[in-house]
């Protein structure tokens, strides 16, 4: 055997061994494996809510780029953070998220333009501390939308224009917020008109939670029908999808999608998470002796629930134009502080070490 030939065969053998083993050990979150965006390339974009801090963490950044192709700023574009004073905007955090998305070819959903929470203190009051008039408030809303939507025109493809305007009380229609007390329902109509004027190409959403519960679904439908009949430029509805292993049931989810699809508008899943605990309406602290656990039984129920909802999403791919998870991994989620402060809810597809969970496999394993 010639030395050169022997060395060459050894080298080829080593390469072959490494290639075979790299394929064999590839995990769903490894660089050589497909991500959620690849599995669902024929269906819809897969998005995630982010903060500027998460984009600075190399491990989280790598996970985001591997798995997702759409970003939603979790808080950076809400009115309070981005417009803290009437004559001052804070652009740094929102700009950094949009710049990151553009640098990596990701879509961006804007969230949100008009909400009753996370609003600046100055918004509803004049210099004497009295409530402003309807005309003044609508002018402030228009100025805000003109500045924010105008700044990101052509960079943000969709906006959650009005967020959570339906009351939680099933006997009422619209939430009795300061927006409603001052403007009546006109603030909803005008917000969409202002957003459309600021960026005629942006897809405009009404965004809401608990849409799978029949009584609230009917009130959301009523609002959307009223807007559409008035020729208001609302293009889509966002189902927030803050769900649990206990709800929704498949028939409830299907009924919701079909109900809104009948309006001939698109549907997006905008804030998806799947808690292993039942939903609680009132915020509270973790009780003495109350555990925050993720048992094998919970893990399996969560995987089954995720499998069910994504099976439905795939079935309605002609209606559903995107799915966005609310936070990246169980390491940090908004559910860590609400409704039960200090309790982990383990709601996402990746664990606290950014590793894929059983739920991840149920989402990418099409049956």
What would you say this structure looks like, in words?
- Helix 7 packs parallel to helix 9 and helix 12 (296-315) packs parallel to helix 13 (358-364).
- The protein is 41% helix and 15% strand.
- The chain starts with a helix and ends with a helix.
- It has a single domain (43-278, 290-364), classed as TIM Barrel, CATH 3.20.20.80.
- It has 13 helices and eleven strands.
- It has 367 residues and is of the alpha/beta class.
- Residues 1-32 have low confidence and may be disordered.
Characteristic key phrases:
367 residues; alpha/beta; TIM Barrel; two-stranded parallel sheet; 11 strands
Give a summary of the structure in a few sentences.
The chain has 367 residues and is of the alpha/beta class.
Fraction of residues in helix? 40-55%
Number of domains: 1
**For the record, what CATH class applies?**
Alpha Beta
Computed Rg: 23 Å
Provide the CATH superfamily.
Answer: Glycosidases
Topology:
Layout: H1 3-24, H2 36-39, E1 46-50, H3 52-56, H4 58-67, E2 70-73, H5 79-82, H6 92-104, E3 107-114, H7 134-151, E4 158-163, H8 178-183, H9 186-198, E5 203-208, H10 214-229, E6 236-239, E7 242-244, H11 250-261, E8 266-275, E9 284-285, H12 296-315, E10 320-325, E11 340-341, H13 358-364
Parallel strand pairs: 1-2, 1-10, 2-3, 3-4, 4-5, 5-6, 6-8, 7-8, 8-10, 9-11
